[in-house]
Write a structure and sequence with these properties.
By secondary structure, the protein is an alpha/beta fold. The protein starts with 6 loop residues before the first strand and ends in a 20-residue tail after the last helix.
């Protein structure tokens, strides 16, 4: 049995209006403390550069903390068009003080349903994310918005059997070789009301294939409500199930923005 580090490196705040008003920094830190978190990362969305100054409000609130844990300042990136680019650069990272970046695909980018094409698009973007030197973590592979599927009349994606094992192995190998961590996500994949127990079981099997290729993993709740930080407990449980040693669990190499020391 491994002793999984108690980390949560995918948490949203109220500032980008992705999370709700409960997600204020002092409340987040206190809830994380009660759950046993020892280090966390704030990772609000950066879809377009015009929202950058909102991230400075997050950084200000982190710097005002006196937490009983380490707190890092990160950002979550998203492809705004199929095969597009992230709204991020080394200059943006340095100017705004982001300490790490997580990112990945958040859409099907399809108007007509075809399951193989859907999976191929996801896989291509997963590999592209891993190959981006500015991205530390690939977020929630094979998460989908149920709202998008409903609005387009697509059958719901509720089985990982649609993903070839070769895709999982290739992702694990590319992640290992690029040093990109694959996220184990609580709210999006493991504890989402949109997904069945069968999907979750198959998803853990998919993560196990990736782990078998030597990839590292990041642990994240992806909480958008103060009551949704708790799924990080399920994430830690899965990390234990995968038998991940401490060196296989990712955390930023830099010092935290603020910390218990």
């Amino acid at each position: 049995m491994t002793d999984t580090p108690k980390l949560d490196f995918h948490i949203h705040t109220k500032y980008l209006r992705c999370a709700n008003e409960t997600m204020e920094l002092p409340a987040i830190v206190e809830e994380c403390r009660q759950l046993g978190v020892t280090a966390l990362g704030i990772t609000d969305h950066l879809n377009t550069l015009d929202t950058l100054d909102l991230h400075l409000l997050i950084k200000r609130d982190i710097e005002a903390l006196e937490p009983a844990m380490d707190v890092y300042f990160g950002v979550e990136l998203n492809y705004m068009a199929m095969d597009g680019a992230f709204a991020f650069s080394q200059e943006v990272k340095e100017q705004y003080g982001f300490q790490f970046a997580i990112g990945g695909i958040h859409s099907t980018y399809m108007d007509t349903y075809d399951l193989k094409t859907l999976v191929d698009i996801q896989h291509r973007h997963h590999l592209k994310t891993c190959e981006d030197p500015l991205v530390d973590v690939l977020v929630h592979p094979y998460w989908f918005s149920s709202g998008e599927f409903k609005s387009k009349g697509f059958p719901w994606f509720d089985s990982m059997k649609a993903v070839p094992e070769s895709y999982a192995r290739e992702l694990g190998q590319v992640a290992r070789d690029t040093g990109t961590a694959i996220e184990i996500n609580g709210c999006a994949n493991l504890d989402s009301p949109s997904f069945s127990d069968r999907y979750v079981k198959e998803y853990v099997e998919y993560l196990a294939i990736i782990a078998g290729e030597g990839a590292r993993f990041s642990l994240g709740s992806d909480a958008h409500d103060i009551g949704r930080l708790k799924p990080i407990l399920r994430v830690w449980q899965v990390a234990e199930q995968l038998g991940l040693s401490t060196d296989r669990v990712w955390k930023p190499e830099c010092p935290p923005l603020v910390g218990k020391a």
